[in-house]
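Pilot study result, target chain (479 residues):
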Amino acid sequence: MHRRTFLRAGAAALGLSALDASSAWAGWLGAGARAVPSPRQLAWQRAGLGLFVHFGVNTFTDREWGDGTEDPRIFNPTRLDARQWARAARAGGFRTMILTAKHHDGFCLWPSRYTGHSVKNSPWKNGQGDVVREFTEAAHAEGLGVGLYLSPWDRHEPSYGTPAYNDHYVAQLTELLTGYGPLTEIWFDGANGEGPNGKHQEYDWPRFHRTIRALQPGALIFSDAGPDIRWIGNEKGIAGDPDWCAVDPTVVPRPGMSGPEVTRSLQHGNPHGTVWRPGEADVSIRPGWFWHADQDDEVRSADDLLGLYFSSVGRNANLLLNVPPTTEGLFHPTDVERLAEFGERRRRLFSADLASAARASASASDGRARGPQRVVDGDPDSYWSPPGGATTGWVELDLGRPVTFDVVSLREAIAHGQSVEGYTVQGWTGSRWATLSRGTTIGNHKLDRVPPTTASRVRLSVESSLGTPRITGLALHEG
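Predicted structure:
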């Protein structure tokens, strides 16, 4: 589990969901430059799913947090197979894997030159093994992006709590950034000397970020506050509603900050924010983050995983699902089965768009290139928008026949930013327009579960928008 020391109180109070878009943001920044994603952020958001892999000495001590006194000789996965992890991730439809290269205990899954607390002093492969290398090679072989987590908190390193630790940390970070090929995401949390006798470390975050930018310019950086990806404010896999990709950089969390304003920034972003920092929702497939034998019967069901997908990806965030290997170095068979079921459930649900052949019309359009048919052409870069800078309007699909569905999928063309802050979806049931769902933000992807509905026409009405709305997707599914 990855506690954020400066957000414990604020992140626990998650009573900010479903805020009224017309009034919830009073007092925040006035409208300024519109935030837009970088190409790397856009590609990451479209990928949608990442798999976290928590593995280390905690796997063998049956703990969640180690204290740094563990004997490296306990680390001995007898059947480690990172390709099995990568195949399971790909079967589940995941696009990236992130490994805990070092957790809070300081034990390194690669043979670091800067500590003896690593795999080089374990019996695994007679001290010649490198989990990070096997992991990165397996992910690349399966066509997956590679991410690494390097805990800033190190309970083993003697220099922790002094300025010298930042040199030590950058040295280890450099090893990971230069030794394992291209990386897509570097993952941090805010853990910092926690506990009654914990040392406090002044992390040199600007230096850490500069090191990553210099050595892995293609990698995105996740932390509580960004700079590329922000934490969503909880470890339950639940994004805020509304959820804006932009943030106000003056309100994002910093050490010592807590309370509702910080929680709001994490959970909901800021509609007038000037910096694009989409959210990532992390959660584990089990009660714990590391593998524990007594939790083998507590693995989330496929239905539960699909629910997490709706509450994260379906609310404009990405989902980072943790799956921990066993002491053998394998994903447990139950976890592998659930990942496959999760992937198959999503394929069955989303492979058929019941609106793909619909004829589209709109209240008005900004020329042929921005016509209503763009919402069903499957191209994430084409879109319908109203003319003349209008901030409201509707697009309607004539399905040609009565169609039964229970999921509505909406997308904005976020390459141009995020604008919609209030919408309604209606269905024509043969005698009247029935309201199926109302929502606030759409962003990259919004999924609305609706009552099973049979309709021949469906209308999306944008009722409030910060700028010209750009709708790139309106799809219907039955699941």
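One observation from the pilot: Residues 353 and 476 are 6 Å apart (CA to CA). A full batch analysis is planned for the follow-on phase.
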